[in-house]
Amino acid sequence: MPLIHLRDVHLQFTGPPLLDGAGLTIDRGERICLIGRNGEGKTSLLRLVNGQTEPDGGEIVRGQGVATAMVEQQVPADMAGSIFDLVAGGLAEQGELLTEYHRVSRQLAECDEPALHAQLDELTHRLELAGAWRVEQQVETALSRMGLDPDAEVAHLSAGMKRRALLARALVQQPDLLLLDEPTNHLDIATIEWLEEFLLRHVETLLFVTHDRRFLRRLATRVLDLDRGRLTSWACDYDTYEARKEAALAAEAAQQAEFDRRLAQEEKWIRSGILARRTRNEGRARRLLAMRRQRQERRDRPGTARMQLQEAERSGRLVAELKGVSFAYDDRPIVRDLSTVVMRGDRIGVIGPNGAGKSTLLRLILGELAPTAGTVRHGTNLQVAYFDQLHAQLDLQESVVENLSHGSDTVSIGGRKKHVYGYLQEFLFTPDRAKSPVWQLSGGERNRLLLARLLARPSNVLVMDEPTNDLDIETLDLLEELLLDYPGTVLLVSHDREFLNNVVTSTLVFEGDGRVGEYAGGYDDWLAQRKPPAVEPPPAEKPKAEKPKAEKPKAEKPKAEKPRPRPAARQLKYKEKLELEALPGRIEQLEARQRQLHAAMADPDFYRQDRPRIVETTAELEAVDRQLAEAFARWEELEAL
């Protein structure tokens, strides 16, 4: 029996229906990614499945005893208490007992009072009766895996750490179905990769919304598309879904064009005169009325966002030069002895864990912070536009229009006046939505508003701090194209690995203890160039007092040091040198063929061919992908020598 089954479900708040007769079946073991534009109702669907919202019509059938847990897209503003309290709070009564036990334990550590001892004894007894000690192990395991300090105060955490705590709270419940709404938002790359591995190994059934295409490709076994109130299931990987979806939209557009042509003919006929009103033509007139109703009820797909960057006068060839720059907060090194040059036209990505100082590095480069050591020299005629990941530039109480135009009816785009509502429609804000206060907007809509504000300003240096959070995949693709065509300089902080690969030309990577490494290319290029982490011997176990053989680990110490890697002693052989020289050309040929095959499969006519031809092309693409991966691996192997 399915875990969850939706039958003819309807849901509508204001505006068009979010769900219009939707059906969905979720079976155990599936990992389903829900895709749709911002505002289509993805979060509302997750809440329906989680039981937080009731549908306007239809039926939601849950399997007997099926438990769900959901991590929301937005981090609640009123989170308080310790991380342990927050995570244990997801376990109902047992969690409350554990929370109280840890609270009394902390008090007892500070003040040794008999009353606290009695209270702790009582709680211990209740925990044993409730079987909560096993649950405590679950909480501690989740905290350890997420790298969380159980005693840290939630209110003092960064947005990324709060999200990690919420993930731990959901995971500790061990739900039959885990619901994740944009789980990678505000997580650093290392945590995202850890989350991928954790979900693959430990979560059996998953329904999630994400804009992270690499995360999607790694996890999803099925793609669920929400488009104009309709749910469509695609039992394939993401790249195949994209090709099939494009073909389906092209076929839909062709059908609608044919329908509109026939409707125009019938409208012309009905206006042709008295002949149209004769008895023998009443059937045709009734069909025309039915066609009118059908056309009126049709929900056309909203247009694609149209973004255009305004370039200011060109900056000087030099944008910024950093020599021996260091910066520290309270003796904690953030940046240590960094020397680099930013030239006009560079697109530089900044990578690092949460709290490493990525935003601080941007401010150092821009001259907003003075370094504690070293010098920063700037070029001439710099006009900077800044995208803030925390949305601090937005007034939540003001409307979308007021945040953009500050009372004016027009904005100046490329030296020409444009009405503010027309400009906002290019960012998919309807006139009604443009009048809404910002606090009512989804995270993706707020990011689109920030982009609208940012792109309305002329600039030659574009600074973007986590611009990809909450944006739908279609808008991400458009933003990538926009940045690739931008002739100015781009400084980009992002945890979206695909976005970095597609946009940046070099990366600055925080490598620990204030060290910042500089690498050519995007995220995957950094992975290929970075030094492998040193292999350290496992720490020796602490000797236990009750065991006389506590010194045993010392005897085994030489074994722990044995695996340490030695530097390669040999040089490349002559054949290997020739192979290394030939590999770039080989990779280029494979990539060109890969692009040709992708283009062929993206053509709507591709799936109208005979099945053997489709299978043959698909098999060739898989072979090219495999050969390309092998070529890259071999290239890395030979380069390392």
Mind explaining what this structure looks like?
The structure is a single chain. With 641 residues, the protein is α/β, with parallel strands linked by helices. It folds into four domains: 46-239, 3-Layer(aba) Sandwich (Rossmann fold); 251-297, no CATH class; 318-529, P-loop containing nucleotide triphosphate hydrolases (Rossmann fold, 3-Layer(aba) Sandwich); 574-640, Valyl-tRNA synthetase, C-terminal domain (Helix Hairpins, Orthogonal Bundle), CATH 1.10.287. α3 packs antiparallel against α4 and α3 packs across α5. The protein is globular and about 95 Å long. Mean pLDDT is 79; it is low at 534-569.
Task: Record keyword descriptors for this entry.
641 residues, alpha/beta, Rossmann fold, 4 domains, 6-stranded mixed beta sheet, 22 helices, 18% strand
End-to-end C-alpha gap: 55 Å
What is the CATH H-level superfamily of the largest domain?
A: P-loop containing nucleotide triphosphate hydrolases
Q: Ranges with pLDDT <50 over ≥5 residues? A: 534-569
Structural class: alpha/beta
Shape: globular
CATH class of the largest domain: Alpha Beta
Average pLDDT, all residues: 79
Strand order of the largest sheet: 5-6-7-3-8-9
- Beta strands, count: 20
> What's the domain count?
4
> Roughly how much helix do the residues carry, as a percent range?
40-55%
Named at the architecture level, the CATH assignment of the largest domain is 3-Layer(aba) Sandwich
Number of distinct helices: 22
